[in-house]
Amino acid sequence: MATRSSSRASIRSALGRRLGMDGRAIAAFRVLLGLTLLFDVGHRATDLRAFYTDAGVLPRSLLDANSGLTADLSLHALSGGAWSQALLFAFTGLLAIALVVGYRPRLAAALAAVLVFSLHWRNPHVLNAGDRLFRELLVLAVFLPLADRWAVRSTARGAPEDEPVDDTPGANWLDRVRWRGGSRIATPATAAAMIHVVTLFFSNAGEKLAGDTWPTGEALDYAFRQDHMTILLGEVLVEYPVLLELGTYGWFGLLCSAPVLLLTADRLRLVHCLAFLGAISGLALTMAIGLFPPSLAAGVVMFLPPRFWNAAERMGTRLRRSVATRREAWDASISAGVGDSIARLRRGARRFGKPLARFDRELDAAAARVVTPTARTLADRGWTISLVLLLCVVAVLSVGLLGWAQPVEPVADVSLEDYAWDVYAPDPGDDFGYLTVTAERADREAVDVLRGTSLSAPPPPDPSDRIPSFRWRKYTVALFGTDAEPYREAYAEYMCTRADERFDGTVTSIRITYTRHEFALPGAETGIEPGSNGASDSTTFEVATRACR
Predict the structure, then answer these.
(1) In Å, what is the CA distance from 520 to each residue of 93, 222, 316?
(2) Is the peptide bond before 407 cis (omega within 30 degrees of 0)?
(3) Helix-then-strand count for the chain, H and E
(4) Residue 185 needs a FRET pair 20 to 30 A away by CA distance; which of 193, 205, 425, 500 works?
(5) pLDDT digits (tens, 9 = 90+) for 270-296
(6) Are 218 and 522 in contact (CB under 8 A)?
């Protein structure tokens, strides 16, 4: 019996070290999700009227006619006014802050997930793979111990290595599926989150392997020539094809080796995590693809082992000591006004914190009076069952994403395209394009509605500057899909209104055109006329026209 118990403990420890997360990694994951959500809300708010009201490009009548059940489930579709959207956006922003500071983070994550899905259903045409990945991570976060570290109400506690499980009758049911070894926590939820991220990476590698440009090292060369998406370093690196080839093989290799994140637990996992984070940072500095880089980073941070966090804490301790030695000189050098401002901020934080702490205590006391021990036991059992079911659902989806779905019948009823990550898979395209909305004023002057400038001014050298944001670029797809005519009419009507407001009611008509650029790599045999960006050719055609007065 002792040998069997020891073997079970060894197996449990091995699985826990690989499928468990450091409490500090979970906290960093939570903070990244909160910051990403806060950025997303702020960024979307700049186009709140355009994308989420009846006065914008997608009024609810058009949404209801083309989106089915999801439109009926969206809280953001209950009203077409800007005021209701502003309230929902503000509440979502508060939930994002709660996630960052760790105030009741599980509840905050659950409510945020509801609002994010609602927002996505209100206008699905401005979403990309990064938005889908973000909402999946937000749902998984609901089941993780988000308040274990770095939280306003931390639940962290000391735990011996390989904490034993109490199997006696009446023991906490969660302990039957939870393992804690040092700072690592392993539950079905941690396993589900890690398996999901690795599956996304590995399935994307499979899709890229089926293409032509990733195995040959040309993929990033094609991707970086899509000028409407490159930013910052991307506009420089396009001139260095050797670096792009190395980057192609490097990223493709990381995706192919993604299972190493699950199979290892310490040094090799740390090396892989740092390599992924470095590549993701490069992605954020070179391409405008929305929430994709921070969502990927949040998914990878979960894998960082205790070795990394221990080293980070040691560096933090040394930094605090260094700051402490200079504090007196710093205090003496700053002005009295700055010191008074800092003191006022601290007093304000304390005044805000005291009623919040009092509210928390009263809420906990009320819950303790209402919830009986029997109800608490039933809740523990229900939560444990939900964790196991979550792992089963992720396992089934993973089987489907990896192409092994045939023997698993439930996968046949799931739209795997909603969960797959298809960025530049199987290959990047060899063209790109953008819309131009031209308004004609009463004085015959033609102006660019999206840029707010006269067409007589020289066009921006970077095509990405021709559109307000990546979400406007994404919405362009709706104008060329199946049954696109209603979308074009609504888009044109909104642009008339936008132009009329921007140019003081002097706009008489608008004309929407799409310019498509085809390109080939330098040296490729093609019939396209040569240009500065390899070989390139452009075609402009009319999308819609509308009289505005």
Answers:
(1) 43, 8, 49
(2) no
(3) 21, 8
(4) 205
(5) 999 999 999 999 999 988 888 999 999
(6) no
Q: How many CB atoms lie within 10 A of CB 319?
A: 10
Could you give the angle at the alpha carbon of 502 between the alpha carbons of 498 and 504, nearest 5°? 115
Q: How many residues does the chain have?
A: 549
Characterize the bridge pairing of strands 446-448 and 453-454. antiparallel
Which two structure tokens, joined as six digits, stand for 526?
């093609």
pLDDT value at 31 more than 80? yes
Classified as helix, coil or strand, 74 is coil
How many angstroms from the chain centroid is the CA of residue 432? 24
Query: How many Cα atoms sit within 13 Å of 79 on the Cβ side?
Result: 9
Backbone angles phi, psi at 414, to 5 degrees: -110, 135
Question: Running DSSP on this structure, what letter comes out for residue 123?
Answer: -
This prediction has a pTM of 0.84
Query: For 445-496, how does the pLDDT look when each residue is reduced to its tens digit (9 = 90+)?
Result: 778 887 766 665 555 556 666 777 888 888 888 888 778 888 999 998 998 8
> pLDDT exceeding 70 applies to what percent of the chain?
69
Instruction: Give the CA distances from residue 408 to residues 395, 396, 414, 420, in Å, rounded to whole numbers and listed in that order.
Output: 11, 8, 11, 18
Burial class (CB in 10 A: 0-12, 13-18, 19+), 345: exposed
Taking CA atoms, 547 is separated from 60, 80, 277, 319, 480, in Å, by 23, 25, 50, 64, 21
Query: Could you give the 3-state DSSP secondary structure of residue 331?
Result: helix
